[in-house]
Amino acid sequence: MSTRIYPAPIYGPVHSRRLGLSLGINLLPPDGKSCTFDCVYCECGFNKDRLPKLKRPSRSEVAAALEAQLRLMHEQGQHPDVLTFAGNGEPTSHPEFAGIIDDTVRLRNSYCPEAKISVLSNATFIHRQDVHSALMKVDNNILKLDTVNADYIRRVDRPVSPHYDVRQIIAGLKSFGGHVIIQTLFMKGTSGGKSVDNTGDEYVTPWLAAVKDIAPSEVMIYTIDRETPDHGLLKATPQELDAIRDRVVAAGIPCTASY
Ligand code: SF4
């Protein structure tokens, strides 16, 4: 298996397609993957194959490691464009997430005030007030909404909780009052013998209606970029992504497509 697991709590900096020179912050254990979703396209692999044995980094460990790395980069004249919370699972699942965001804002302001703070999240904890408030403090609150089709979500994003309800998630996304960027992965191919193509009208039209309802500051659409644990998946084409992007832009919402 060539899916990847990230060091914790800091990795990179890496050049990101969507974000620029990005210093990664991984709030999950460094020896496996743990997520509230189990996406068939996850570059970290399936949850069951990558069960971590180590603990998550604590808030104080994250702050110390981040400060050391930012100081080093500062001394070397390296300037991150963005400090990105991502890595081996869902960052907002960390019990000290809100405090970690406060620390990160303080360290960013001290070492690289021009850098943005981005959180890449699957939105499963946005109902928690502490997580919601913390996400309001970051520059790029990037939350996943691959589709509004409940069956597709069960087959592709595969939330671990049986209580996941996309309608509640959409209501939660709306509650950011526009301080949210929607990220959506479009792809084709099959998983478990069933199509996972969400590029057609039957998926895009209701998804776009939900996006308009949420009224985000921006939408980022993209497709598979790295090896996926499910080998039946295929990239959406640039033409397909561009056509979806154009529909979002026509609705008055800025949108980028990454191939
Ligand atoms: S939400 Fe992200 S980290 Fe979690 S399983 Fe899906 S792709 Fe992987």
What is this entry, summarized?
With 259 residues, the protein is an alpha/beta fold. It has seven helices and eleven strands.
Describe this structure in words.
This protein is of the alpha/beta class. It has seven helices and eleven strands. Helices cover 33% and strands 21% of the residues. The strands form two sheets. Strands 1-2-3-4-5-6-9-11 form an eight-stranded mixed beta sheet. The chain has a three-stranded antiparallel beta sheet with strand order 8-7-10, with no helix packed on it. Helix 1 packs parallel to helix 2. The two termini are 23 Å apart. The model has no long low-confidence stretch (mean pLDDT 96). The structure holds iron/sulfur cluster.
